[in-house]
Design goal:
By secondary structure, the protein is mostly helical. It is built from 19 helices and 2 strands. The chain has one domain: Hydantoin permease (Orthogonal Bundle). It has helices at residues 11-22, 25-37, 41-69, 73-79, 86-119, 121-126, 128-135, 149-167, 169-197, 202-210, 219-232, 239-245, 253-283, 291-304, 309-343, 347-369, 389-417, 420-427, 437-462, and strands spanning 138-139, 144-145. The longest helix has 35 residues, at 309-343. It binds 4-fluoro-L-phenylalanine.
Amino acid sequence: MKETRAQWGSKLGFILAAAGSAVGLGNIWKFPGKAFEGGGGAFLLMYLLIVPLVGMPAMLAELTVGRASQSNVVDAFGKLGHKRFAWVGWVGWLAAFIITGYYSHVGGWVLRYVAAYATESGSVYADPLAYFYRMLGYDAAAETTFFPWVALVFAAVFLIICAVVIIRGVEDGIEQFNKVGMPALFVILIILLVRSVTLPGAQEGVKYMLTLDLSKVNGQTFLIALSQAFYSLSLGMSIMVTYGSYLPKEENMPRNTLLVCVMDTLVAVVAGFVIVPSVFATLGAEGVGKGGGFAFVSLAGVFQQMAGGTIFGLMFYLLLLFAALTSTVSLIEGIVAFLIERFHWKRTPTTIGLCVVLFLMGCVYTCSQAAYPIHGIWFDFANGLSFPLFCDAMEFLTDRVLIPLSALGTCIFVGWAWTPKTAVEEITRCGVKFRLVRTFSFLIRFVVPAAVIVIFAVSLFTGTTLS
Ligand code: PFF
């Protein structure tokens, strides 16, 4: 007898879980840095256009494929009668697998910073950069490297938390977890927003985020905004197909898509308005760093100079932790769902085994940050803490190749093979109203594929840097 598929226990459960997946390190750690780099207001405008025109139809398409097929991402296309699209599922699954390896370790760093702000914020403030290096196994003063056990222990704890949530299953684990985590995240973010924009000197940052400098609108910033949107909305990585497969037939998918996209974008934009102005206020425009340094190093200077900064610091990292946990849980769920369905493995041992593998994969990432044990090969001390070649290659492979490829495959599938008509039939089952049928068909057939092709073209022809 066929086992009945798991389903979301309530409407809110799905929305929170999907929003929990979308809202992650990408929104709070990556987005503000990219918005700054991409010219503030100009980037914001592009991003706000890309989400409804590209992100929303792509998300609706993924959810629809999931719900119609009632299947994990790899088998979904075959179940809908188009076996030749199975590669799309594999590509998305592979992207999720690679991303989870490093994402879970960055989650571990966040956990480390929660502990740091709770117990020894003084050490962070004393020398934020040295503190960050030390976590990763590099003693900046002595210029020596050592085994980054702190980062690894925290990554292991982070993955154990994720595994527990996933083992408890869709309804008990992911849903319950998100019901608490997501609202908490919003509350903390709003408190931080109020604190940040009222800092003396923060106005410059607010102005920067609101000024539209059209000279900053170009292929490069468009590319950054576009790939950020895919990443941020958890598209092209099997997640929304898997989550869609747990949706009951009477669920209104267009409305859910709208809600999830709005929440994700809101968090990203608010995080931008938390971080950019506060960094302007305390460190000036020069202080706005990027990537890891941005969330872990530059912000220490901000919290140090704020009244009650340690408390705000603690809240900020707790927020980042919630965000990272819900996203990692979704990534692992997408991988696990496939493994248990395809190989009939049991949920618990599969999750544990997978988390061990992911931990080991991530060890390469964390260890290579401080060049341990391959000192001097992947790492250039002369130029500071640069991202190792390995990680660059992995990020390039996922963000610029696998994710766009899988997203392209999905929209070509829905737009041309399965056809928007069939998709709309699935969307409007049980009397769900969908007014934007023609708009959806047009976007999914032409606009989304064109946008994805731009990612490939710009990446290939301009030799763009990863950021
Ligand atoms: N959307 C998440 C973020 O913005 O951090 C990252 C992510 C989670 C990407 C889940 C992909 C995914 F499947």
